[in-house]
Design a protein that fits this description.
The complex is a heterodimer of chains A (539) and B (314). Chain A is α+β, with helices and mostly antiparallel strands and 539 residues long. Helix content of chain A is 33%, strand content 21%. Helix content of chain B is 78%, strand content 0%. The radius of gyration of chain B is 24 Å and the shape is flat. The chains are: A alpha+beta (539), B mainly alpha (314).
């Protein structure tokens, strides 16, 4: 009997603990409830998958682009349709030979600590970046920069080695050439490792920050431009995509913005629920498969062309992307500079694809699942970044489609770093790649095609005209004749298209999902900026 | 006893040295080094010269064993180097993330004990009854589903449907309930089963029968004799479980946006931040060894026979 009593006591204890747990948790509930984000007026809460980083304007990861763009500004802005607009520089002149740029700084611009923007401070920033030039050698602008000279307090002159045409485009980049205030510089004057404080001229100031938890921005009271309507922006770090969706559903956050922050499935289901506002931007960059022209079966042009014809992109767009990304037939969207070249698309045509493979000698044989040539079966390696669910979905779709054609696709999913390594080494037949978006597209992407460490170079390495391709690119970048440059771009894009070294899949987009209290979520031309200046919230 | 503890503590040193050497070598076998990783992340990529320059800056051009020597020389002076990504001292960074993880692990441990001890005892005492079956069902289910799924389920039910607790993040104690329950549930099953088996095994031993004949009451017999013999394997398992609670929080931290050391490690692996990974392995290794030692000592205190085996008794 006593034995039973002991057990009963224990059982009661468990039951009580559970009950106590529940009761007291509902007591504590108001604190943790969803009202948090609505309590304060003018507060917008957004989720992000990573910490914003140390906000060093002259460095890259782990600094997050959008946060750098909130705090720091550059001399010029990249506006709609690629128009370069004044920012910290009010106006500028370019010398006849295209090698000297003189910028007139806007008067009365103050940093967030109240100090004034001067030509000296701009030079100091440029010098700090040049000091660390090795780190920036992917950026042609830095390599071309000869010297930076202060003319007077509000005028600065930059001399270049060559008449490099995309100077203004690259000056508009979010990094590495944005301007840090005097108080942000460490004692030794070098920003190569860290900065002292994030002091910029931009519309936002970092007010509170807890690494890997949140960052709170408030408007910069000294900002020279139109002040944002929001009173505060809170960026909550939520690493898991599904958790971000739940946080939005509960009302803990107001907005999920960007590309890759939501899976197409989540976007679709949030959109279908009818409880949220949703928006999709215009094209941001191009998602392509680079096809290796110097490796295995894909060294044959006919095999590459067969692949181009065999992918039913529309089906992919409808069923994997739910229309969130749009179908792409060219490496660059036609509205980009120099990219409006008439190129006949490779239409979805299975018969043509089969014919091309037959012509290339890859024949179907009885008893063989895949096409054969000289006793070998047709097997291609397709590499993707395993952290990108979309890539995996596209890769699996591709595998199924190609099987119908008698091509065996071996999928290689690897974590990001190993995936990049594979790109550089060129050990793939097909590999996922993405253009970089404006202002990099098209000139920076094209410039990088000359670098052996890029997938593009590897993919093109089997082309007989590769040396000419590289020459055209080099010439286009420093040609002073607009007509000649357009002609070179046309030649380049046509050749790459005809040689079928890229299989364009879709134009990526940004998506935004937000609660009704949020309005005026616009998309900006630059891939990594978030339109906090226009967003409004109702209490 | 003191001699035994001292001998065990001295034994820790070669284990840690071996552990650090092994992890150092393994790290360098992983494709892509920190210099390349840093530049890869700075999308768009960089040239081979830039990688080489950064490698030299990071000291990666030296032979591996020389690098290990430098690291070890500093580590014994408790200088764990600076992160290759943030340029902050690793000790300081770990110190920032560790409290969150410790807090989570401790509260999970508490829940784990509160859950598994009564359930284990109950299911042994009522072996074969409906209660035992219900507990077994829970145990098997909790052991079969991945912890992120339990996490999402808890978030969905408790936080979203019932609106009882906050969804995620770190704050007051209400933020702790869901993540620590998730962690505790994942590790409760083996403990409950061990305890149940242990009790069942000892319940019918001759010395327990003798105690019963001597008229010792049921609860006293259970508490003083059966449990005392059934606990040592549970304690040993618990020692390892605590280690797992500390080192296995990555997924739970990610689901609940908990700013702990697990996420810091995952990011560091992605960035190939050698000093951080190395220090983390050393820290967790030390914890595991110390917890194991503590468990052994507790067992020795409970069971004189194990002291005899280890030659602790004079």
């Amino acid at each position: 009997m006593k034995f039973k009593r002991l057990s009963m006591t224990l059982m009661l204890l468990v039951a009580m603990m559970t009950a106590v747990g529940c009761v007291s948790s509902s007591d504590g509930q108001p604190k943790g409830k969803s009202t948090e984000s609505k309590a304060e007026e003018g507060l917008l809460t957004m989720s992000w998958n990573k910490d914003i980083g140390p906000l060093n304007p002259h460095l890259y990861a782990p600094n997050e682009w959008f946060a750098q763009a909130m705090v720091y500004e550059s001399l010029v802005n990249y506006g709609e349709n690629g128009k370069i607009e004044p920012s910290l520089a009010e106006s500028w002149e370019i010398s006849e030979d295209g090698k000297t740029y003189t910028f007139h700084l806007r008067q009365g611009v103050l940093f967030s600590d109240g100090t004034a923007l001067t030509a000296n401070q701009v030079k100091r920033n440029f010098d700090a970046v040049l000091q660390n030039a090795k780190r920036h050698d992917w950026l042609e602008l830095i390599a071309e920069m000869k010297q930076v000279e202060v003319v007077d307090e509000h005028t600065i002159k930059i001399e270049f080695n060559n008449p490099y045409y995309p100077v203004l485009q690259e000056l508009s980049l979010i990094r590495p050439l944005r301007i840090l205030g005097d108080a942000g510089f460490p004692e030794d004057g070098s920003t190569a490792e860290q900065i002292k404080a994030p002091i910029g001229t931009g519309p936002w100031v970092l007010k509170a920050y807890k690494k890997d938890e949140y960052a709170l921005f408030v408007p910069n009271e000294h900002y020279w431009g139109t002040k944002p309507k929001l009173k505060q922006v809170k960026v909550k770090v939520i690493p898991d995509a599904q958790a971000r969706v739940m946080a939005l559903q509960k009302g803990d956050i107001d907005l999920i913005f960007g590309s890759g922050q939501l899976s197409p499935d989540s976007f679709k289901s949030l959109q279908d629920s009818g409880n949220y506002q949703t928006a999709i931007s215009s094209s941001v960059s191009t998602r392509v498969l680079a096809i290796h022209s110097n490796k295995g079966a894909t060294a044959d042009l006919r095999v590459r062309q067969a692949l181009e014809h065999a992918l039913n992109k529309q089906l992919l767009i409808d069923h994997v992307f739910y229309g969130i990304e749009r179908k792409a037939d060219t490496l660059f969207a036609l509205e980009l500079p120099y990219s409006n070249v008439a190129l006949p698309p490779y239409d979805y045509d299975m018969e043509k694809a089969k014919q091309l493979l037959d012509d290339a000698g890859w024949k179907t044989e009885a008893g063989q699942a895949f096409r054969m040539k000289d006793g070998e079966s047709l097997r291609l390696q397709l590499a993707y970044n395993s952290e990108e669910h979309v890539q995996k979905a596209v890769a699996e779709f591709m595998q199924g489609e190609m099987r119908k054609l008698g091509i065996e696709i071996e999928l290689i999913g690897e974590e990001y770093q190993t995936h990049v390594q594979r790109q550089k080494e060129g050990s793939f037949n097909l590999i996922f790649s993405e253009t970089w978006g404006v202002p990099y597209d098209p000139h920076s992407v094209v410039a990088s095609m000359r670098e052996p460490s890029h997938a593009d170079y590897q993919a093109q390495s089997g082309l007989a005209m590769k040396p000419e391709i590289d020459q055209w690119i080099t010439e286009a970048l420093i040609s002073t004749s607009e007509a000649r440059r357009a002609e070179l771009y046309k030649q380049l894009l046509t050749t790459l298209h005809e040689q079928a070294v890229y299989l364009p899949i879709s134009f990526t987009t940004h998506t935004a999902v937000y609660h009704d209290r949020v309005s005026k979520v616009e998309f900006l031309p630059m891939q990594y900026e978030i339109p906090f200046h226009s967003i409004e919230v109702r209490p | 006893m003191a001699g035994y503890v001292l001998r065990r503590l001295i034994g820790v040193i070669p284990v840690l040295a071996g552990l650090s050497l092994l992890s150092f070598l393994l790290l360098h076998l992983v494709p892509v080094d920190p210099a390349e990783a840093a530049l890869n992340l700075s999308n768009p990529g960089a040239s081979e010269e830039a990688v080489q320059a950064l490698r030299e800056e990071m000291g990666l051009h030296e032979p591996i064993l020389a690098q290990y020597g430098t690291w070890l020389y500093k580590a014994v002076q408790l200088d764990f180097g600076t992160s290759l990504v943030s340029h902050q001292p690793v000790g300081q960074e770990l110190g920032q993330y560790l409290p969150a993880t410790l807090q989570l692990a401790l509260s999970a441990l508490l829940l784990l004990l509160v859950m598994s001890l009564p359930l284990g005892i109950l299911s042994a005492v009522y072996k074969g009854s409906w209660l035992d079956r219900v507990i077994q069902f829970i145990v098997v289910s909790a052991a079969s589903v991945p912890s992120f799924w339990i996490g999402f389920l808890l978030i969905y039910l408790v936080s979203m449907q019932l609106n009882l607790l906050p969804l995620m993040g770190r704050g007051d104690w209400t933020h702790l309930v869901l993540p620590s329950s998730t962690l505790a549930l994942a590790y409760a099953s083996p403990l409950i089963r061990l305890l149940r088996t242990g009790i069942l095994e000892h319940q019918h031993q001759p010395y327990i029968q003798a105690a019963r004949l001597r008229g010792i009451s049921n609860p006293k017999r259970m508490g003083k004799y059966v449990l005392k013999s059934a606990l040592p394997p549970v304690i040993t398992a618990l020692g390892i479980t605590i280690g797992h609670l500390l080192a296995g929080t990555v997924i739970v931290e990610s689901v609940f946006a908990w700013p702990g050391v697990g996420r810091y490690l995952v990011e560091s692996v992605a960035n190939r931040d050698y000093p951080v990974i190395q220090s983390y392995v050393l820290l967790m290794g030390t914890m595991f060894i110390l917890l194991n030692l503590a468990a052994d000592l507790m067992c020795a205190a409970l069971d004189p026979r194990s002291r005899l085996k280890e030659g602790v008794l004079p």
